[in-house]
Specification:
This protein is of the alpha+beta class. It folds into 2 domains: 7-73, Rhinovirus 14, subunit 4 (Irregular); 82-145, DNA polymerase, domain 1 (Orthogonal Bundle), CATH 1.10.150. The chain has helices at residues 42-45, 56-81, 95-103, 109-115, 133-145; strands at 10-16, 22-27, 32-34. A 3-stranded mixed beta sheet has the order 2-1-3, with no helix packed on it. The radius of gyration is 36 Å and the shape is elongated. The model has no long low-confidence stretch (mean pLDDT 82).
Amino acid sequence: MKQGIHPAWHETPVRCMTCGTTWTTGSTVDTLTVEICSNCHPFYTGEQRIVDTEGRVDKFIKRLQQRDEIRTQLDKVAADRTPLDLPIKDLDIGARYTNILEANGIAIVGDVLDRLGDEDDDNSILAIQGIGRKVVSDMRKSLRAKGYQLNN
């Protein structure tokens, strides 16, 4: 071992700032302080406290219930203000598609909702010549934006 390159080794007192306990250890510094020690740490003393008195799961369930109540209220309001006799011109799908739908007996939103079923259904709006998936998608978006409830 080389002489003069190693730091001085001291018997160092360690003091806990929380409970004031002092003990001795070996170190290269003169004094040490710690915030908490094994004499006052809740894990070692058995005095652990649970800060969360109401469980996280309970809080989450309450938030879900509040969300469901708000959705129910919004659905009631939307059902009250969405008439089924609204003309399909108000869906903003374009004059061409509006004319095609009107020529096939679909003139109001109620007719659209009756025929707007599964996209793979033969009786759906897709069976009409000149109406494709893009138009059906645009109608669905417009209906949702106006507050109508759709199954899919």
